Amino acid sequence: MEPSDPTHDVAAEAGAAPLVGSGETSIESVVARQFRPAEQFGAGDEQTGDPAGEQARAQTPPSSAAQALAAPADSDRAELAPAEGASLPGAHALVDENDEAEDEFTTPLLSEVLLAVEELWPESLAEDWDRVGLVTGRPDAHVDRIMFAVDPTLEVIDEALEWGATLLITHHPLLLKGVNSVAATSGKGRAVHRLIEGGCALLSVHTNGDSAVGGVSDVLADALELTDAVPLTSAAHGLVEEGIGRVGMLPGVEKLGDLAARIFLKLPAVAGGVRVAGDREALVRKVAVCGGAGDGLFDAVRASDADVYVTADLRHHPASEAREASSDGRPYLIDLSHFASEWLWLPVAARALGNVLMDQGFAAEVLVSQTNTDPWDFILTPGN
Questions:
Q1: CA 192 to each of CA 46, 173, 339, 347: distance values in angstroms, whole numbers, following the listed order
Q2: In this structure, what CATH number is given to the domain that contains residue 286?
Q3: What is the mean pLDDT of the segment spanning 42-57?
């Protein structure tokens, strides 16, 4: 999420070391969103004057896939540590356990995967400045292997092609800003060429993935065990539960330093670690979160009366001004790696898509990328 910098783009040539995990990621407490039937997907409901189809989404009961996400069976649960990235139990893995059922499942077309993606992360939830959706790929192509990643860097694309992915779903868009050439003389151009020549489609789920129920901020809130979490800002074309950021309550009062340490242990390891502004011994209970760059939400955070704000990419001036504006030091700030704060969503998203595809009778393998696309390699600190 980059609400404060709509022109920010992915550095397609950024390289990084292999992902090293530092803790466990909870992926079981995914909240089921209200699903629309596939035939209702599209630009909107012209007859009802509902441009984004919110009425249909609000009135449609959860599908069986949504129910499976809300309460997955024990046999379909996986505790995935950030470094492991094993193939998540989606349609293909479950079908292989029962040879007699294989004939009941088919390999989906890209267009059919796009419908499943729209169920989970509707494009209508994307911010106006964002560019989400299909970047490369033929809708009539078959998709048997899907990889999830934060960034569509060249290293990630190579990883996807080496595995044999036919669809790469990334959180960040490859082409957020307008381009007039995709020649292979630039990083963006080389990315497009490698994808097309390798037969791999590229799809971006960005701020629609931030706002959706079970999206980036919900997963971050779930990792902190927040209860009664609500959006910091409401989605213009979404349900009441959808919007950027979340604010909720910890199970009990916790020291700021302990909360920061707990978050640190749940994230994939990155050079920058976790930065904190505030008294280490201060007691906190109400927490606001926003995966990705969140310093454009300070007004909403202050209005929420949160004790602490957990986000990423906090810049000097917004962070300094937020501290100066407070009489008691609150909200305290916990600044994460942009990549790490959004990586937590990938296993959840992969499981969700696998479940929806299986519910619709499709078989596809789903894998989470193990490439660390955080741009920093090392950091110097006092004593180090």
A1: 35, 12, 22, 25
A2: 3.40.1390.30
A3: 37
